[in-house]
Design goal:
With 185 residues, the protein is an alpha+beta fold. It contains four helices and eight strands, in the order ααββββαββββα. 27% of the residues lie in helices and 28% in strands. α1 (5-15) runs antiparallel to α2.
Amino acid sequence: MEIDLPRRTVLGFLEISHLFDERDRRELATFVAFVFEHPDCLLRSNLAGHLTASALVVDPERRHLLLIHHKALNRWLQPGGHADGDPDLESVARSEVSQETGLREMKPITPCPFDLDIHAIPERKGVPAHLHYDVRFLFEADRDAPLRGAKREVHDVAWVPLTELESRGLDESVLRPARRIAGFK
């Protein structure tokens, strides 16, 4: 089967993903199958699902995680968004951080995807429910850097202590990778 260059780029990212456990291996297999089966995997017009990229941004001491309060979903999440045809998923994640939080300077802790997550997005504004195949990258940034939420998409932006994440009622898809951050070298 012939795979186009954008999907080969995505498969290259997936191939070097950090795999911490059996759940990660299963998720990776599902991602790879999805990319092979859907030539339009990078486009939100694929209503079965599409690739997204997000960023887990921590301070240099790895004690705080940068989160946004997403308006449409009314939940605290890591910054991220649709690939919209761009196979450079790390760049997509970085761009979404800047757009949603105003944070401009960040450096990758690892060049490899840190987490993979498939999650359901509910029907909204005439768009049917679908899946996001989210490729997540780990970045470090200065907690004193100025932040400003994108008013159209974000209610608030905050550095949240890792020790407080569990008590904030965050989704497991945020908590799972956050638990791995402190011990990651």
